[in-house]
Amino acid sequence: LKMSWFWLYLPLHLLTGTSLCHAIKAPTTSSQQSFKTNLFNFYHSLILADGKETTIHLLKDIPKRYYFALEEGRVLAPFSITVTPCDVPIEWSILVYKSPPEKAAPGDHVTQEVSKSQKASSIASTIFNYKGNSVETYMGMSSHAALYLLEFLSTERDTHITVYLTTDTTSGHLYPELPADPRINVIGIGHTTVTLTWKHSPSVLQHRESIQYCLLVNEKHNYKSLCAAETAIRSSGMKLPPTLALSLSPYLLEPQQVMILSNSELSIINKVSSGEVRQVCMGTKNTYTVPSLSPSTQYYFDVFIVNLLTNASAAYTGTFARTLEEPEPKVTELKDDKVIHVVLDGKKQKFYGLQYQARHKKIHFTFQLCRGQIRVHITRNGKTVASENLSGLRYFSLKGKLLDTYLVHLRSTEEFNSSVKVQASPHFHKPLFPLLPESLKIKSFSKLRTCRSVTIAWLGTQEESKYCVYRKRIEEDQIWRELQSADRCSGPESRHKSEKVLCKYFYDLNLQRAVTTETIKGLEAGTLYLFDVYLFGPSGIPVRYHSKVVKTRKKC
């Protein structure tokens, strides 16, 4: 930018190393101090870049100043300044310094200097000031050359902001445009879902390929900018990739984060102390149903429209909604030693209740998770005695009084079907399931793989049991479905006879040696196989090990 008259005018009094008060006798103390302050402000300021978003870090109670100049000779030059606080409220203002005063009579050196001193304090004027944490934009127009000073101050704590200055208002906007009505509308509320809709941004119609909507869900409050949301999540002790990974780049997530990519939607769930914070990017769809929420919980929803090329964003007006209370589950009576198979529809029926009247002081509850994800909550006479997410096979041994009433509440945490087998029994010496090893994983040995055979191993127990091995040829695109949709409660009766490899008995009183291996032969080269091992106990009810996928060597 051309500084023209201003840099010729201001430095004359300072470049010599002599302050104005030593050069002349100022007419008044106030005008002298005002002029010196104005000069100090500019010489301790930075140039604000034009056409670029600038990140500025502010220390508490220490003002920071930036300046920019409009070129001399431009007629009605427009400009705009957008300031985005990324955390706490800040104070900021714009001062303008217009062209210098007329020249004094030639030869009158003292009068000339005094005139400049007096006029310097009067040419500065504040044209805008603001205090708060909202995104604010100032639109200005200048008909003559001028120098502008921006001052920023944080009085609460150290923070950072972003500032965008542009003097070219005709070639488009850095930030995506919001519609005339930027509100988010809640059009549906369920026990675990909330459906939202919002009006399309004009930017979506013009730049569909580089623009997308992203939704932030949390249990604390709404955020006025994406920058503020990022800062809040980081302050919870988490490290985030830039712009909340909204650009769909393959950033490495922290242990507290879970990434889910389905139906072209990216979801990132952050586990923070104040609850979950979810980020979902859904392309250019302007209606979205938020799934898997907790019943009777208030959530805050913010929608941001993001330019993937520049990472610039604009925030819709946030909203909030409270999910419906958890309905009373259907209650079924549990009887001694009887196994009940409960299936929960992830969309229609997510809750189920079981009631058991104790006829003994000690009760043994057994849960075998068959499919999906389920949370179990057990109460005795209205008081909670156990609550956790089920994983595989789980036992609860509880001690109470005769005729105690136990209620078992089951809740699906998935959108698709979940199922579990449940048994209540006072007979500890008659377990429903066999004694389990320390791990139900199947191990394969890469060095022992050939084109025609695979060697696998699994752990056994100190109790003699029957183990049956099954194999199934699969394709690459079937792996995820086979591993995720498998019914872990189903036994070999659901398998085709041709898939059976062998059955064997073994045990070892020394658990360190309770390991068996098996080499499966007669396989095809370069082919994927799914291997399963079933463990049978005295009751005959099988337990399925975790499936293992192994590929034979292509060349030997």
TrEMBL record:
Descriptive protein name: Protein NDNF
Entry keywords, A to Z: Glycoprotein, Neurogenesis, Repeat, Secreted, Signal
Record carries keyword Repeat: yes
Residue span(s) of domain Fibronectin type-III: 176-313, 434-542
Primary localization class, coarse: secreted
Lineage: Eukaryota, Metazoa, Chordata, Craniata, Vertebrata
Domain of life: Eukaryota
Signal peptide bounds: 1-23
Secreted recorded as keyword: yes
GO molecular function: heparin binding
Function description: Secretory protein that plays a role in various cellular processes. Acts as a chemorepellent acting on gonadotropin-releasing hormone (GnRH) expressing neurons regulating their migration to the hypothalamus. Also promotes neuron migration, growth and survival as well as neurite outgrowth and is involved in the development of the olfactory system. May also act through the regulation of growth factors activity and downstream signaling. Also regulates extracellular matrix assembly and cell adhesiveness.
Gene of this entry: Ndnf_0
InterPro entries: FN3_dom (IPR003961), FN3_sf (IPR036116), Ig-like_fold (IPR013783), NDNF (IPR019326), NDNF_C (IPR045805), NDNF_Fn(III)_1 (IPR055271), NDNF_N (IPR056225)
One family name in Pfam for this protein: NDNF_C
Gene Ontology biological process terms, A to Z: nervous system development
Subcellular location: Secreted
One GO CC term, this protein: extracellular region
